[in-house]
Amino acid sequence: MLRRKLSESLTARIFLMTSLILLCAGAITFGLIAWATPITYTAVVNDDLERQVDTLVNRLADMDLENCGPLLDEFIRSSGTDAMLIGPDGQIVNTNSQLAIQSLYEDESRVVTDVGDKSAVTWAAKPDETEDTVTVTMSEQNTIITDVQFADQQALYSLYVTPLVEKENLAVRALGQMAPWLLLVLLAFSLLCALVYSRYITRPIVRLSGIAGRMAELDFNWKCEEQRRDEIGALGRSLDQMARRLSNALKELETANRALRGEVEQERELDRQRMAFFSAASHELKTPVTILKGQLTGMLEGVDVYRDRDKYLLRSLQVTGRMESLIREMLAISRMETGTADVRQESVDLSDLMEQQLSLDSDLLEQRGQHLVSTLTPGIIVTGDASLLGKAVGNLLSNASLYSPEGAEIRVWCGMRQGGPALTVENTDTHIHEEALPHLFEAFYREEASRNRTTGGSGLGLYLVRMILERHQASCVIENTEDGVRATIFFPSETT
Questions:
Q1: Inter-residue contact 34 to 179 (CB < 8 Å)
Q2: Which of 191, 421, 451, 463 is most buried per CB count within 10 Å?
Q3: Nearest Cα residue to 87 out of 109, 107, 72, 70
Q4: Contacts of 314 (CB under 8 A, 6+ apart)
Q5: What is the pLDDT of residue 277?
């Protein structure tokens, strides 16, 4: 609203200024016309009269003096002038004309011309020597004097032609009567021109003002597209260019901001995971430490059941072993999370890797009375760290054995699937609750909520498997089958 008021005020100022300029220019022009009209009109009349006089002289040259009266009357009527014919002796000649100036006295009439003022021509009549001279002024206007030679006369006669004052002033009087109307027309025309011009000037300015307001609100979805060649057009094109650059810069900033927010959220999530990990690790270590402390205290104080030291020393050793295994897993995970773990890039044969892990876990399978079925395709090559991949495969094999009952079947397969290397580890006679499947790869997660060491591990095995596979651009999927649970590892095809 404020911008609109300012633009309207600017339009009003330009309109008033333009109106005043046009009115002043029109008034000056009108004054000049009024001043120059009589002069111009007199000059035009005199030029036309001179042409008519030349024509009259040419016609008089073809006739006799005594017959020129009707021709003079015709000339006087058509030209609206006064005329008289002067003889060689300076006397007014009676031409039998009804309109031409004739002599008032028959004895003597002569023409007197004031040389100092050519606009006055007089003639004087003297009836006798004793009386005064009678002087009559013909006109105050410019008089045309020309020589005339008749067909029957050898001497030259002078023709005096004077335009009438009344006719010369008709145009001036008409102009004076029309002056108010001309002023009104001039005023209306000036206001119309001022309105058109002010709109022409302020329209792009108002538009640019609106565009600037939208730019202030960071709205760059517009184009000025000003085609004018003046400074306003250059300003509009500059605004277009600036809007494009600001829009691109804003998009880049938004992209960078989104990336930064993503990184911040990712960092926050990592911090949350680290806090959760260390909290869970503290809890996992607290329980065996408490058990170990209680057993050692009981043995030192000789409390009842703890008198059998060999038995509880063995249990303490087992607790210490579990703590050592947990600490090793935590250290491995910490190195991977911080990026200090060295991940070598070498060609690894998955079939040979599986055979090595099966030979290491054969004793565990025999102790639990479980049957192994392996189908390994030779020559399945991936790129990665053999020791880390062996640990991941070993964790899957140990989980399959530990979470399967006695007499279960452990099936291992290695080959190509979905265009890339893959391997599966499946154990029968057991299932995982469907609600637990999405959480299996979380740190310290165990499907058995009591966290009894006799029914499971630390909950870091599958979490470690996930971290190892992520560093090899591989993935692992655990799902229930008809007769058991199957874990499948997919390697990217570009690593073959």
A1: yes
A2: 421
A3: 109
A4: none
A5: 66
